[in-house]
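Fig. S4 source data, part A: sequence.
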Amino acid sequence: MEEKDDAYTFENHNRSSPLSIFFKDARFVFRMDELGVEIARIAFPAALALTADPIASLVDTAFIGQIGPIELAAVGVSIAVFNQVSRIAIFPLVSVTTSFVAEEDTMANAKVNPAEQDSESLEMQSPIDSESEKLIPLNDSAESTYKSESSDGSLGVAKVKHEKRQIPSASAALIIGAILGLLQAVFLISLGKPILNFMGVKSDSPMLHPAQQYLTLRSLGAPAVLLSLAMQGVFRGFKDTRTPLFATVAGDVTNIVLDPIFIFVFRMGVSGAAIAHIISQYLISIILFWKLLEKVDLIPPSAKHLQLGRFLKNGFLLLMRVIAVTFCVTLAASMAARLGPTQMAAFQVCLQVWLATSLLADGLAVAGQAILASSFAEKNYGKATATASRVLQLGLVLGLALSVVLGVGLKFGARIFTQDAEVLRLINVGIPFVAATQPINCLAFVFDGVNFGASDFAYTAYAMVMVAICSIIFLFILSASYGFIGIWFALTIYMSLRTFAGFWRIGTGTGPWEFLRS
């Protein structure tokens, strides 16, 4: 019945334009049917986990803001540098890992599906063995016990030890994540000062010392950050977003507790904030690695099973894309820093809120990517169509809701971050942009997840490069003419172009979405 429903959905959809995918069954956007429940089960924990780290950064920002506006601006620049350099490595790694693990897990489950066993195997199996097999959960690495009847009629207890999953992409992700984390730490520690100079923090700036101090210490946590996010990609591929949520919350709560102790009690200032963050990141990595060992055999049969070539090829495409994204956001932060500490402090607060709230949509993107990767692996285009429609519609609704919340709430909440009157004035200038762009931002993030789920890495890379070129031109022109407001106008244009690129690919029914026109 389920296959028939999927086929009917796909057949009806093909009678109309590919554009209809954006409006398909829109009146059922909140329906908690099988698809709705699956999306919610993946998206809600993923959204909480994704927003936990930006929220921890906001807490850092709030505590550091109590020290003074110079420290707030300095840490703002350092966080922007660290996050953007991290994204260059993290985004390709996590996105590719999620898709590859979802595909491998789907194909592995299809191979061991009892329904696909031949009739001879089923006839040779005893009724008791068949019944006992139902009692053994699949893909569980723990030992399970079940009762079986012996030849003399007595009941005995047998223990069956389940094999761990063989997912080569998981092992490859950890290897690449560890190497990239070490390279990032060395890069930021050795070149921290020149990078900060590029960001507009010159040698005579009062921001330089605290910014360099924070960036150097924070960089020691880079290996943990890369490893933890690589493991999150593995769990997302398994459609398990609860485990990463548990680990992230444990780490970030630790960060929040340690922040005031190190900053104020031990009087370590910005260094204390960085050390608290490092401790939290290593805690997250340890928890995730422990949980992953329970599910996956991380030692592959041979080196060729790691498929490092496939990882590197698609990772390079996404690396192009993330460099383009990173350069746009980093350039915007650099231009704000060049305006002075006051403008940079206000920009830092607005940017952190802008990203933290928009990342809620990344939960939908993760759900869309995981479900779509499985659907494309199974060639279930009916489910792929329904999933893309649902997550995009939910993204738009979420963006509209965030616009209202931020438009009203940020005016009253800005004093959490600073008491400086001039910084508060500029934050109020940025609030309309932060609030109004939420629907655009949410759709941009969800489009990313949808296209990654279709393994459309090449298009997303080339399209983002074109978007970045146009956005950089606007950044230079508008920031030179209108300063702080001009930067936010340019960022609005940037996110609008990102959304249009995603809309164009699916709406024209090209690439992996060609089936919409067949």
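Fig. S4 source data, part B ends here. The mean pLDDT is 82.
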